[in-house]
Amino acid sequence: MSELNLILLGPPGAGKGTQAERIREDFDLAYIATGDMLRQAVAEGSDLGREAKRYMDAGELVPDAVIIGMFSERLRADDARDGFLLDGFPRTIAQADALGEALMELGRDLTGVLLFEVPDEDIVRRISGRRVNPGSGRVYHVDFDPPKVAGRDDVDGSELVQRDDDRPETVRKRLAVYHEQTAPLIAYYEERGLLHPIDGTCAPAEVAEHVRRSLATLQREQDF
Ligand code: AP5
Fold it and tell me: How many domains in the chain?
Protein backbone atom coordinates (compact mmCIF):
# COMPACT_ATOMS: atom_id res chain seq x y z
CA MET A 1 0.00 0.00 0.00
CA SER A 2 1.32 3.51 -0.85
CA GLU A 3 2.38 5.85 1.94
CA LEU A 4 0.06 8.63 3.16
CA ASN A 5 1.76 12.01 3.57
CA LEU A 6 -0.84 14.41 4.95
CA ILE A 7 -1.20 17.99 6.12
CA LEU A 8 -3.91 19.20 8.51
CA LEU A 9 -4.68 22.85 7.73
CA GLY A 10 -7.09 25.25 9.41
CA PRO A 11 -7.38 28.11 11.89
CA PRO A 12 -6.40 27.76 15.55
CA GLY A 13 -9.05 25.73 17.34
CA ALA A 14 -10.44 24.20 14.12
CA GLY A 15 -9.97 20.69 15.55
CA LYS A 16 -6.69 19.67 13.89
CA GLY A 17 -5.24 18.15 17.08
CA THR A 18 -8.56 16.50 17.96
CA GLN A 19 -8.85 14.81 14.57
CA ALA A 20 -5.13 13.95 14.51
CA GLU A 21 -5.67 11.70 17.56
CA ARG A 22 -8.36 9.79 15.68
CA ILE A 23 -6.40 9.58 12.40
CA ARG A 24 -3.40 8.19 14.29
CA GLU A 25 -5.60 5.45 15.73
CA ASP A 26 -6.68 4.40 12.22
CA PHE A 27 -3.45 4.86 10.23
CA ASP A 28 0.11 4.23 11.32
CA LEU A 29 1.58 7.68 10.55
CA ALA A 30 4.34 9.71 12.21
CA TYR A 31 2.60 12.65 13.88
CA ILE A 32 4.54 15.90 13.49
CA ALA A 33 2.90 18.80 15.35
CA THR A 34 5.15 21.87 15.41
CA GLY A 35 3.08 23.49 18.21
CA ASP A 36 3.63 20.40 20.43
CA MET A 37 7.34 20.35 19.56
CA LEU A 38 7.65 24.03 20.52
CA ARG A 39 5.70 23.58 23.78
CA GLN A 40 8.05 20.71 24.65
CA ALA A 41 11.05 22.95 23.99
CA VAL A 42 9.48 25.62 26.24
CA ALA A 43 8.92 23.04 29.02
CA GLU A 44 12.55 21.90 28.73
CA GLY A 45 13.77 25.52 28.92
CA SER A 46 16.03 25.09 25.86
CA ASP A 47 17.32 28.07 23.82
CA LEU A 48 14.75 27.23 21.14
CA GLY A 49 12.01 27.09 23.77
CA ARG A 50 12.95 30.47 25.27
CA GLU A 51 12.99 32.11 21.84
CA ALA A 52 9.73 30.45 20.72
CA LYS A 53 7.82 31.34 23.90
CA ARG A 54 8.01 35.08 23.20
CA TYR A 55 6.27 34.61 19.85
CA MET A 56 3.77 32.01 21.04
CA ASP A 57 2.61 34.06 24.03
CA ALA A 58 2.08 37.04 21.70
CA GLY A 59 0.05 34.90 19.27
CA GLU A 60 2.63 35.41 16.53
CA LEU A 61 4.40 32.87 14.34
CA VAL A 62 7.85 31.66 15.29
CA PRO A 63 10.26 32.80 12.51
CA ASP A 64 10.40 30.58 9.42
CA ALA A 65 14.14 29.87 9.70
CA VAL A 66 13.72 28.41 13.21
CA ILE A 67 10.68 26.32 12.32
CA ILE A 68 12.00 25.03 8.99
CA GLY A 69 15.24 23.87 10.65
CA MET A 70 13.34 22.09 13.44
CA PHE A 71 10.86 20.53 11.01
CA SER A 72 13.41 19.34 8.42
CA GLU A 73 15.28 17.37 11.07
CA ARG A 74 12.05 15.75 12.31
CA LEU A 75 10.92 14.83 8.77
CA ARG A 76 14.09 12.79 8.29
CA ALA A 77 13.55 10.70 11.45
CA ASP A 78 13.05 6.95 10.90
CA ASP A 79 9.40 6.86 11.95
CA ALA A 80 8.43 9.38 9.23
CA ARG A 81 9.71 7.15 6.39
CA ASP A 82 6.42 5.35 5.75
CA GLY A 83 4.03 8.29 5.99
CA PHE A 84 3.38 11.36 8.12
CA LEU A 85 0.65 13.58 9.48
CA LEU A 86 1.62 17.26 9.74
CA ASP A 87 -0.33 19.43 12.21
CA GLY A 88 0.53 23.15 12.29
CA PHE A 89 3.14 22.97 9.51
CA PRO A 90 3.40 24.55 7.00
CA ARG A 91 1.94 27.88 8.12
CA THR A 92 3.50 30.24 5.57
CA ILE A 93 4.25 30.06 1.85
CA ALA A 94 7.99 29.95 2.69
CA GLN A 95 7.37 26.89 4.91
CA ALA A 96 5.28 25.22 2.18
CA ASP A 97 8.07 25.80 -0.35
CA ALA A 98 10.63 24.37 2.10
CA LEU A 99 8.44 21.29 2.63
CA GLY A 100 8.11 20.81 -1.16
CA GLU A 101 11.89 21.03 -1.58
CA ALA A 102 12.57 18.62 1.31
CA LEU A 103 10.12 16.06 -0.13
CA MET A 104 11.62 16.42 -3.60
CA GLU A 105 15.09 15.71 -2.16
CA LEU A 106 13.69 12.60 -0.47
CA GLY A 107 11.85 11.53 -3.66
CA ARG A 108 8.47 11.68 -1.92
CA ASP A 109 5.14 13.43 -2.57
CA LEU A 110 2.34 14.93 -0.56
CA THR A 111 -0.85 12.86 -0.67
CA GLY A 112 -3.32 15.52 0.43
CA VAL A 113 -4.13 18.53 2.57
CA LEU A 114 -7.22 18.34 4.81
CA LEU A 115 -8.61 21.83 5.38
CA PHE A 116 -10.84 22.15 8.47
CA GLU A 117 -13.29 24.98 7.87
CA VAL A 118 -14.68 26.66 11.01
CA PRO A 119 -15.89 30.29 11.17
CA ASP A 120 -14.04 32.74 13.42
CA GLU A 121 -17.04 33.22 15.72
CA ASP A 122 -16.91 29.53 16.79
CA ILE A 123 -13.17 29.59 17.41
CA VAL A 124 -12.99 31.76 20.53
CA ARG A 125 -15.68 29.64 22.23
CA ARG A 126 -13.86 26.44 21.37
CA ILE A 127 -10.47 27.64 22.51
CA SER A 128 -11.70 29.17 25.78
CA GLY A 129 -13.10 25.75 26.80
CA ARG A 130 -10.08 23.76 25.67
CA ARG A 131 -8.16 21.71 28.26
CA VAL A 132 -5.02 19.72 27.44
CA ASN A 133 -2.83 17.07 28.97
CA PRO A 134 0.56 18.81 28.78
CA GLY A 135 2.41 15.46 28.80
CA SER A 136 0.65 13.67 25.93
CA GLY A 137 -0.95 16.67 24.17
CA ARG A 138 -4.40 14.99 24.40
CA VAL A 139 -7.14 17.57 23.89
CA TYR A 140 -10.58 18.01 25.52
CA HIS A 141 -13.31 20.64 25.70
CA VAL A 142 -15.27 21.33 28.87
CA ASP A 143 -18.59 21.22 26.95
CA PHE A 144 -18.01 19.70 23.48
CA ASP A 145 -15.58 16.87 24.30
CA PRO A 146 -15.36 16.57 28.11
CA PRO A 147 -13.10 14.10 29.94
CA LYS A 148 -14.82 11.32 31.93
CA VAL A 149 -13.67 12.95 35.20
CA ALA A 150 -13.62 16.77 35.19
CA GLY A 151 -10.07 18.15 34.96
CA ARG A 152 -8.43 14.71 34.55
CA ASP A 153 -7.04 12.93 31.48
CA ASP A 154 -9.06 9.83 30.47
CA VAL A 155 -5.95 7.72 29.82
CA ASP A 156 -3.38 8.52 32.52
CA GLY A 157 -5.48 10.59 34.98
CA SER A 158 -3.05 13.54 34.99
CA GLU A 159 -4.29 17.08 35.56
CA LEU A 160 -5.61 18.95 32.51
CA VAL A 161 -4.51 22.56 32.01
CA GLN A 162 -5.32 25.60 29.89
CA ARG A 163 -2.64 26.63 27.36
CA ASP A 164 -0.84 29.95 27.99
CA ASP A 165 -1.78 31.19 24.50
CA ASP A 166 -5.51 30.43 24.92
CA ARG A 167 -6.40 33.83 26.44
CA PRO A 168 -9.10 35.60 24.34
CA GLU A 169 -6.85 38.51 23.24
CA THR A 170 -4.08 36.09 22.13
CA VAL A 171 -6.64 33.94 20.30
CA ARG A 172 -7.86 36.99 18.35
CA LYS A 173 -4.25 37.78 17.40
CA ARG A 174 -3.65 34.13 16.33
CA LEU A 175 -6.75 34.28 14.14
CA ALA A 176 -5.56 37.51 12.48
CA VAL A 177 -2.15 35.93 11.86
CA TYR A 178 -3.86 32.84 10.40
CA HIS A 179 -5.85 34.90 7.90
CA GLU A 180 -2.85 36.98 6.90
CA GLN A 181 -0.05 34.41 6.75
CA THR A 182 -1.53 30.90 6.65
CA ALA A 183 -4.79 31.21 4.69
CA PRO A 184 -2.84 31.86 1.42
CA LEU A 185 -1.87 28.17 1.62
CA ILE A 186 -5.46 27.27 0.73
CA ALA A 187 -5.01 28.62 -2.83
CA TYR A 188 -1.43 27.26 -2.90
CA TYR A 189 -2.56 23.67 -2.34
CA GLU A 190 -5.78 24.04 -4.34
CA GLU A 191 -3.70 24.98 -7.41
CA ARG A 192 -1.68 21.81 -6.88
CA GLY A 193 -4.85 19.67 -6.72
CA LEU A 194 -4.16 18.59 -3.12
CA LEU A 195 -6.83 20.41 -1.11
CA HIS A 196 -9.70 18.51 0.57
CA PRO A 197 -12.07 20.81 2.53
CA ILE A 198 -13.83 19.31 5.56
CA ASP A 199 -16.74 20.95 7.39
CA GLY A 200 -15.24 21.37 10.87
CA THR A 201 -18.39 22.72 12.49
CA CYS A 202 -20.05 19.32 13.12
CA ALA A 203 -19.50 17.27 16.27
CA PRO A 204 -16.00 15.73 16.57
CA ALA A 205 -17.25 12.19 15.75
CA GLU A 206 -19.01 13.43 12.62
CA VAL A 207 -15.92 15.36 11.49
CA ALA A 208 -13.89 12.18 12.05
CA GLU A 209 -16.27 10.27 9.77
CA HIS A 210 -15.79 12.86 6.98
CA VAL A 211 -12.03 12.60 7.46
CA ARG A 212 -12.14 8.78 7.27
CA ARG A 213 -14.12 8.94 4.03
CA SER A 214 -11.69 11.47 2.49
CA LEU A 215 -8.67 9.40 3.50
CA ALA A 216 -10.20 6.17 2.19
CA THR A 217 -10.77 7.87 -1.18
CA LEU A 218 -7.23 9.27 -1.20
CA GLN A 219 -5.77 5.86 -0.43
CA ARG A 220 -7.83 4.19 -3.18
CA GLU A 221 -6.72 6.85 -5.70
CA GLN A 222 -3.07 6.33 -4.69
CA ASP A 223 -3.20 2.55 -4.97
CA PHE A 224 -4.97 2.67 -8.32
P1 AP5 B 1 -0.41 25.13 17.50
O2 AP5 B 1 -0.21 24.34 18.71
O3 AP5 B 1 -0.19 24.49 16.16
O4 AP5 B 1 -1.84 25.82 17.58
P5 AP5 B 1 -2.94 26.18 16.46
O6 AP5 B 1 -2.66 25.88 15.04
O7 AP5 B 1 -3.22 27.58 16.77
O8 AP5 B 1 -3.99 25.14 16.66
P9 AP5 B 1 -4.63 24.75 17.98
O10 AP5 B 1 -3.80 23.69 18.65
O11 AP5 B 1 -4.96 25.97 18.79
O12 AP5 B 1 -6.01 24.18 17.47
P13 AP5 B 1 -6.46 22.82 16.80
O14 AP5 B 1 -6.92 23.08 15.41
O15 AP5 B 1 -5.46 21.72 17.01
O16 AP5 B 1 -7.77 22.56 17.67
P17 AP5 B 1 -8.08 21.47 18.79
O18 AP5 B 1 -8.20 20.10 18.19
O19 AP5 B 1 -7.16 21.63 19.96
O20 AP5 B 1 0.55 26.44 17.51
C21 AP5 B 1 0.71 27.22 18.67
C22 AP5 B 1 1.74 28.34 18.40
O23 AP5 B 1 3.02 27.74 18.07
C24 AP5 B 1 1.42 29.25 17.20
O25 AP5 B 1 0.58 30.31 17.56
C26 AP5 B 1 2.85 29.72 16.81
O27 AP5 B 1 3.30 30.73 17.68
C28 AP5 B 1 3.70 28.49 17.05
N29 AP5 B 1 3.83 27.66 15.85
C30 AP5 B 1 3.41 26.36 15.70
N31 AP5 B 1 3.68 25.90 14.47
C32 AP5 B 1 4.29 26.92 13.81
C33 AP5 B 1 4.79 27.07 12.48
N34 AP5 B 1 4.70 26.07 11.58
N35 AP5 B 1 5.35 28.26 12.15
C36 AP5 B 1 5.45 29.29 13.04
N37 AP5 B 1 4.98 29.22 14.31
C38 AP5 B 1 4.41 28.04 14.69
O39 AP5 B 1 -9.57 21.95 19.19
C40 AP5 B 1 -9.79 23.16 19.89
C41 AP5 B 1 -10.89 22.96 20.96
O42 AP5 B 1 -12.14 22.71 20.30
C43 AP5 B 1 -10.63 21.75 21.87
O44 AP5 B 1 -11.06 22.06 23.17
C45 AP5 B 1 -11.49 20.63 21.25
O46 AP5 B 1 -11.94 19.71 22.25
C47 AP5 B 1 -12.65 21.42 20.67
N48 AP5 B 1 -13.16 20.81 19.43
C49 AP5 B 1 -12.44 20.16 18.47
N50 AP5 B 1 -13.25 19.76 17.48
C51 AP5 B 1 -14.50 20.19 17.80
C52 AP5 B 1 -15.76 20.08 17.15
N53 AP5 B 1 -15.89 19.45 15.97
N54 AP5 B 1 -16.84 20.65 17.76
C55 AP5 B 1 -16.71 21.29 18.95
N56 AP5 B 1 -15.53 21.42 19.61
C57 AP5 B 1 -14.43 20.87 19.05
Answer: 1
